[in-house]
Design a protein that fits this description.
This protein has two domains: 105 residues, Outer membrane lipoprotein wza fold like, CATH 3.10.560.10; 66 residues, 2-Layer Sandwich (wza like fold), CATH 3.30.1950. The chain is 19% helix and 28% strand. The chain is built from four helices and eleven strands, in the order αβββββαβββαββαβ. The strands form three sheets. Strands 8-7-11-9-10 form a five-stranded mixed β-sheet, with helices on one face. The chain has a four-stranded antiparallel β-sheet with strand order 1-6-2-3. The chain has a two-stranded antiparallel ribbon with strand order 4-5.
Length: 203
Amino acid sequence: MKYLSPVAVVTACLIGSIAGGDARAQEPLEAPAELASDYLIGPGDVLDVFVWGEEDLSVTVPVRPDGRVSTPLVDDLEAVGKTPTQLSREMEKVLSEYIRSPKVTVSVKEFVGTFGAQIRVLGQVVQPRAVPYREKMTLLDVMIEVGGLTSFAAGNRAKLVRVVDGKSREIRVRLNDLMSRGRIEENMEMQPGDIVIIPEAVF
């Protein structure tokens, strides 16, 4: 049976908590350089829109809660659910009414992701919130993102809710064993849409 050093696990959690800080608990993350080209834009994402040769039209804009963006000469264009490339092409169509052969590049500067591309963590963690899903993300990665368990958490009674073949399934997860005892066999790979629920301990 393989074990992670408890000290290493706890240190990683502390680093994640300190780096995040309470002030940044609800802020979107910076988009990683390797963000997949098929990433779907979500509400709250911040986009860099670059129009080649047109500095006045190149801006950084947030995706509004209604899923739309507005840039110079482009009003209320639907962005949510599209890839940056798809949005670039649609902006070019609109701008072609004003500019000859416009070339637009849209990149995600800060990302939240669509609802189905998030992992939600509820209950007794330091920062309960939705975490943007990343490829190969594990349960330990998610716990570090939310700052770890609170002192009131019943970590070994936590559960993960996952939709499998259209049906909701509950999976028992032993977070105390993973976080405090370094039992890496309790770690697991996450999927978009997962929900982690950590109950309060009974004293």
